[in-house]
C-alpha cells in the first residue's frame, strides 16, 4: 500500500526539485548558541531539528512528500520529494526526525577540515546551501 503510494508519486512524474529555502534559518550563525562565532555539531543539529519541524506542518513528527509539496516555497514548482524520500530509511513513505537527522547532509560534509566546528569559509558554504534549500 505504501509502496503503491510511492509508485503513484513517481508515475505522476513528480520529478522536479524544490529550490526555495526550506530551512529554519538562512544564516547558520543564528544557531550559534554560545555566540563564539563557530558552529558545533550540537548547534548544527538544532538547526536541522528546527528545519524538520518547519517541514512537518501537521506536527505528527513525520514529514511526507505531501507536506513538502504544500510548502509555500514549492508554490508553482514541480516538487518530487525525491531527496526527502532518500532519507526514508525504513521505506514507510514518511521521514521521521531520527531518519531526517541521520541522513541530513551533514555536519561532517560541512566540516571541511574535520576540526569538529564550522568556522569561516565553512560557514559561508553552509549559508549558501541553506539559501538554496534542498528539497
Ligand atoms: Ca558556537
Ligand atoms: Ca508531518
Ligand atoms: Ca520512514
TrEMBL record:
**Has keyword Disulfide bond?**
no
The leader peptide range reads 1-24
Query: Mind telling me what this protein is named?
Result: EF hand domain-containing protein
- Domain spans labelled EF-hand: 43-78
Keyword tags: Signal
Coiled coil located at which positions?
A: none
Is Manganese there in the keyword field? no
Task: Kindly give the SUPFAM superfamilies that the UniProt entry links to this protein.
Answer: EF-hand
Any GO molecular function:
calcium ion binding
Source taxon at top rank: Bacteria
Looking up PROSITE patterns in the UniProt record yields: EF_HAND_1, EF_HAND_2
Question: What InterPro entries does this protein's entry cite?
Answer: EF-hand-dom_pair, EF_Hand_1_Ca_BS, EF_hand_dom
Amino acid at each position: 500500500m505504501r509502496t503503491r503510494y510511492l509508485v503513484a508519486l513517481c508515475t505522476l512524474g513528480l520529478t522536479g526539485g524544490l529550490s526555495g529555502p526550506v530551512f529554519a534559518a538562512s544564516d547558520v550563525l543564528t544557531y550559534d548558541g554560545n555566540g563564539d562565532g563557530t558552529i558545533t555539531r550540537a548547534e548544527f543539529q538544532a538547526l536541522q531539528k528546527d528545519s524538520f519541524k518547519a517541514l512537518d506542518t501537521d506536527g505528527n513528527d513525520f514529514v511526507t512528500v505531501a507536506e513538502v509539496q504544500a510548502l509555500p516555497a514549492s508554490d508553482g514548482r514541480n516538487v518530487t520529494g525525491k531527496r526527502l524520500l532518500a532519507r526514508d530509511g525504513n521505506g514507510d513513505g514518511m521521514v521521521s526526525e531520527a531518519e531526517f537527522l541521520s541522513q541530513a547532509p551533514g555536519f561532517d560534509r560541512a566540516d571541511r577540515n574535520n576540526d569538529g566546528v564550522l568556522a569561516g569559509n565553512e560557514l559561508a558554504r553552509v549559508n549558501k546551501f541553506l539559501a538554496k534549500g534542498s528539497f
